[in-house]
Design goal:
Blueprint (H helix, E strand, L loop, with lengths): L3 H18 L4 E5 L5 E6 L7 H15 L3 H7 L23 E6 L2 E9 L3 H14 L1
């Protein structure tokens, strides 16, 4: 289970990393069922990335894989090619979504959007590490 306190701790760590790299971000945390627990749009973060951050968190939980890895596996000719068109377009295949685990069990996900893929990924990793 991901509590609101968990989500706040995850988001705080992600916000800290985003501030360190100088890139305002949208940061979303979902629970085991893919339901939004908390979201933050940092000052000056793109409002178009709100939806993307939430969908990255959902995708990482829905498939229990990072969106970065899913993106790599969904290139033309690979095993998940076309997956981004499933689930009414809800699936994101850009870096920045990471499943959140307690032991070996996935209990949620974090999604970050607002910068380059490597920036989104770094901020998501910082948030996930705080969990």
């Amino acid at each position: 289970m991901i509590t609101l306190a968990d989500a706040r701790r995850i988001i705080a760590a992600a916000e800290k990393k985003a501030s360190e790299i100088g890139q305002p971000m949208n940061i979303a945390v979902v629970d085991e069922g893919g339901n939004l627990v908390a979201h933050v749009r940092m000052d000056k973060a793109w409002f178009g990335s709100v939806d993307i951050s939430i969908k990255k968190a959902w995708t990482s939980r829905a498939f229990d894989i990072s969106t970065k890895e899913l993106g790599e596996l969904s290139q033309s000719g690979d095993q998940f090619f076309g997956i981004h068109a499933s689930n009414n377009g809800r699936v994101m295949i850009f870096a920045g979504g990471i499943p959140l685990k307690r032991g070996d069990q996935v209990v949620g996900g974090i999604g970050v959007s607002g910068g380059l893929g490597k920036q989104d990924q770094a901020v998501a990793e910082a948030g996930a590490a705080a969990f």
